Amino acid sequence: MADITITHTRAEGTLLEGSRKGDGVFEIVRDHGFWFSRNVTGLYIRRSQDKEAQMWRIDGATAALRAAGHEVTVTIDEDTRRSFAEAEADREQRAEDRAERFSDRADRAASSSDARRAAADNISRRFEFGQPILVGHHSEGRARRDQQRIDTNMRAMIAESERAGYWSDRTRAAENYKAHRIDPQRTLRRLDRLKADLRKQERAHANAVEKGWVSVGRHARLIQDLTEEIAHWEQLVEKAKADGVKVWGPDDFAPGDYALYAGSWYGVARVNPKTLSIAWNLRLAPKQVMSLEDATLNGRVSTHPADYTQVQGRCPGEAMNAFLADGKVPGKKSAREASEAAPADAIREAQTKAKAQKPKKRTDPKIPKRIKVECRWDATEATLTWLNGNNQPHKGHPPVTITAPDGVKFTESVWSESLMSQVTALLTGAGLTYGAGAWTGGPGRGIVRAIEPVPEVEPEAPAVDEQPAPEPPAEELPAADVAAVVDDGRAPADVPSEVPVEDTAGGEQTASDLRFLPNHPVPHGESRVSHSVDPLNTTPHSERPDIMTDTTDTAQVTEVTETAPAKKAPAAKKAPAKKAPVKAVAKKAPAAKKTAETKVEPKSVQKTIPIDRIDRDPNQPREIFDQAKLEELAGSMRELGQLQPITVRYDAGTRRYTIIMGERRWRAAGMAGLTEMTALVLRGVEADSREILAMAVAENVGRADMTPMEEAKAFKRLEKGGYAIDEIGGVCGKSPAYVGWRMDLLRLCEPAQEAVVKGHLSLNLAWYASQLSCDNQLRFLAKYARGAFNSDRDAEAFVKAARIEEERRESQGSFFVLADETPAKPGDVQESLPGAHDVPEEERERIIADRTKLTKKIERLSTAGEILSELATADPEELALLLAGVAGGVGAHQHRIEHLRSLTTKVIKNLRDAQAIAAVRAGAIEINPDAVAPAAPAEADAA
């Protein structure tokens, strides 16, 4: 047995001495972290240098060796250490040694890869390009052996090339080790981590001293190591600053500046000790310049933390606005000059003075500032708490208990639609409305939102020469209807509501105003019934052309304002003429009056309707519904309920509802077992009106599962309804060319339309086929189905040629059809030779002579083919050697070959068209109407 010595010093690490190769010691201690190296005498624990002794490994190895009969001596010396600078220099030296070793390995692997490639090329030069193995020939055996050798060498070449790449990457990593370690920005991040570790060890040391633990010495040594390392890196950062490296910090920025971060300029919202809060809008990223306005939504700025070590530049806000006004984005140099002209401390001082001079906004403390809604899942009661400016319950406003209607539960907790409608009604009754921002919080802890008093709207003073028109008396609703609206937020399910949805200001909302209902908030992170889609135009904004704008135009808003019930104004006060110009009133009032008399906007209300009282629209543009997708939607509705309302119209004669938009959701709701659906009911519209038809078509056009033929029929229905092509495009969010292209597909015969629906015929090819007559469409489909064309391009050329032939024959007073599979009856047609069309004998001779000349020229292309084949198989090094000395060099000859390639592409297209024309004329049957027509009376007499 051997005498083993295990020693540990922080300078050398943990070493095991006294072992020899083959004595079994290594096999015993290997499981405890010991290893061997040619650079270390004996065995050692990896990564134990400059660290505390890993006693669990040492004790484990000691016990195992003694159990095997070895004598073991253990010596631990934690005081013998080397400085951090010495350790760092040693690490850098080892990195340089690694880079040298890895570079040699990469060179050897690259040389081996090149040698393997050269060996494979030498073997392959004995074969002509593309020559197969001659089976049965005396050379077959050697050819197969050479083929195997080529394969072996190529595989070895690939493996050695990958190995060379691996060692090259390792070489670059080792070479960049020092540069990464001394990088000032990385060093600053490293210092933050080290200082945090130092504070942790100081707390642990104080705790160990207080309680008398044995770990006091270990914590003291770690504190010494961290202190020395921090001093080393701080010295390196100071040296970098002295060398001109900019180290950014909170003193370099002011709110409103722009910071260069990750290659883009971002507006600075706040300056923090460790980071900058920069403007952030993921929908706009990446953007060269992102301002605070770009990241503002509902009065709240979205920010992202930017570490100072990753900031690359600063530009003052005013300077950035000047750059953007000139259409420029500043670079680092321009931004540095602007930053020097407007330092951050001067901007902060000016902001502080402006803030001190700005009067503080004071509000009435008697008015609540926020509301908090708390409700459990599937509850019938909820609590609304009025909060003051300190988010504490308001003393002057006791909490309100909201009770759900009979048979209704707040199944969606605080986001319940019924609950939100009652909250809005309470706010309206108290003269309050929602403030800026969105709901915050969640179902478990309640949701909170800011509120504010409803702003008072001062009535416009009438002009001196104009008398204000008498206001119509507001319609008074029955008490039962008012109670239903306030209690449930929607009209009863069995009676169509006449009550328009009201906003917090008391005015009516038309269908276009229902995009964002104040009584149906949509908080962040939740999916509720969506109002982000205009019910009168369901095409998403992302799918509309750039020239289209929002559908709510100025005229529509004016009409709604004039027809809405007006509030009673106080006693009229005459204003000076200069404050109410007569000219402006004289122009505006008649237009509004005329609009109100000639056009009545349909009323709309959102309500819950029994599903068995809803009927599908017989004029629904969509004819095919994917059953699998319907089942997926039904499963989603079964789990989450209805997330988006459908749009229906009410028929007073049948007292039923007909779907305008949302038949797919209606079908899925029936499959999911729902008994009621949320719907937007439009009243005052006729069943066959242009608006209803436009809404139904616009809701379906552009969907991924709507077939092109369904789109074409829907566009045609709009055209019959009186819409022009441009109007159809505007309604559906499509270009006029797209609409016309789709409507051309209706000229296809029934089998061709069915092929388009099933995907057997591409849209481009179907459009070209629609230009043919119906008979020729059927014959073309038969040829296409039999695979008579090599590609769709050949088929497209054939159809074009057939259409040209149709037009030519029509201009000659005849018509033709493509040849069918069955031979034609004799006497019905005029026979014609393929490629010839009743030309004189002299013209025939000229055609034959020109044909002979052309074929001879084409035959001479075989010489060019041989030359190109030789160039394709030539060695690039040999080509460079041969062509480098001629005029123009290799580039001139390459340009000539590229010119030939472009000509070849044009020739191929011409030959494809010629082949299509020849095929059409060869398979065409010309019919002479004058020759066929007299036979009809004779056949009739015989009958």
Overview of this protein structure:
The chain is α+β, with helices and mostly antiparallel strands and 943 residues long. Helices cover 46% and strands 13% of the residues. It is built from 30 helices and 26 strands. Strands 6, 7, 8, 9, 12 and 13 form a six-stranded mixed beta sheet that branches. Strands 14, 15, 16, 17, 18 and 19 form a six-stranded antiparallel beta sheet that branches. Strands 3-4-2-1-5 form a five-stranded mixed beta sheet, with helices on one face. Strand 18 and strand 19 form a beta hairpin. Helix 3 packs antiparallel against helix 4 and helix 18 (708-720) crosses helix 20. The longest helix has 41 residues, at 84-124. The radius of gyration is 43 Å and the shape is extended. The termini are far apart. Mean pLDDT is 77; it is low at 462-600, 821-837 and 931-943.
Strand-helix topology:
Layout: E1 3-9, E2 13-17, H1 25-29, E3 34-36, E4 43-45, H2 55-67, E5 71-77, H3 84-124, H4 140-175, H5 177-181, H6 184-211, H7 216-242, E6 258-261, E7 264-271, E8 275-279, E9 289-290, E10 296-297, E11 300-301, E12 303-307, E13 311-315, H8 317-325, H9 332-341, H10 344-357, E14 370-374, E15 381-387, E16 400-403, H11 417-429, E17 432-434, E18 440-442, E19 446-453, H12 479-488, H13 554-563, H14 582-598, E20 603-610, E21 614-615, H15 627-640, E22 646-651, E23 656-661, H16 663-672, E24 676-683, H17 690-700, H18 708-720, H19 725-732, H20 736-744, H21 750-758, H22 763-769, H23 774-785, H24 792-811, E25 815-818, H25 841-859, H26 861-873, H27 876-883, H28 889-922, E26 924-927, H29 929-932, H30 935-942
Parallel strand pairs: 1-5, 7-9, 21-23, 22-24
Antiparallel strand pairs: 1-2, 2-4, 3-4, 6-7, 6-13, 7-8, 8-12, 10-11, 14-15, 14-19, 15-16, 17-19, 18-19, 20-24, 22-23, 25-26
Helix pairs in contact: 3-4, 6-7, 13-14, 15-16, 17-18, 18-20, 19-20, 22-24, 24-28
